[in-house]
Amino acid sequence: MVKFGVVVFPGSNCDKDCLWAVKDMTGEKADFIWHESKDIMKYDVIILPGGFSYGDYLRSGAIARFSKVMDSVQEFALKKNKMVVGICNGFQILLEAGLLPGAMLMNKNLKFISKYIYLSVENNKTAFTSKCKKGQILRIPIAHGEGNYFCDDKTLNSLIKNDQIVFRYCDEHGKINDETNANGSLYNIAGIMNIKGNVMGMMPHPERAMTSKLGSVDGNLVFQSIVTHVKKYL
Amino acid sequence: MAKVKIYVTLKDGVLDPQGKTVQFALAKMGYKDIDSVKMGKYIEIETKNDGKELKKQIDEICDKLLANPNIEKYNFTIE
Asked: CA angle, corner A207, sides to A177 and A193, nearest 5?
């Protein structure tokens, strides 16, 4: 079985949802990892969950990146066949830690946005989206105040060139423009990965879209893709 | 003993929705001659380090934690 570790920071609040998504819905193994723990190499996948680590003080994720566990996550990400997923606040932490390029600004409309949105799968040849079709439209909720992705032109060009953009905000028909941009993100970016393809951050919450009772099952595609990828190496 | 006053602001060209909203509000209040408003953070540090190394240390603190170089710049004064 694939072993997931879900990191718990002070202020994380999607940790239990992630554990549930992985354990109950995907049927794999999962443990919580306290942010002071350094022992994470036994896991195949580390999830940095959503929430408000350290109250989002200073900048979202800015304090959490100095947790003991993040030193280990840096090492973990360098290892072969190890995967790191940051969801919402987890994505912000990955950016602050420099594991992914860019930064988050406040949403363009200055509001905390909590609603179902549509995502286009920009790249389905990744360990996180192999179960999706290219351009497939996923319905997954967002819940954040600072999810307005920003990077400089050089970084954006390299993200595009290297197929590192995984998800983009769109409408239900897959149209990608300013009107369908959920929070003002540059290039409608909702999720990106590193060049190596083993670290991915996304603002939408796949763990909240695991069963029709919650309004969507599309989040399963992300977790199933990860499990399929890891099982190739087990 | 030294007091350091640090200002962290968004880099030029980075979208500042808070600044824009305040500017919009000021214009509505009749302050039509205001061309731009930028929002930032002000951080005050008191430190026992008042020697030559202080400037270097504050730069380090800003680079590592207080400002995110992707989107922000900073300046500071030492008293």
From this structure: 55
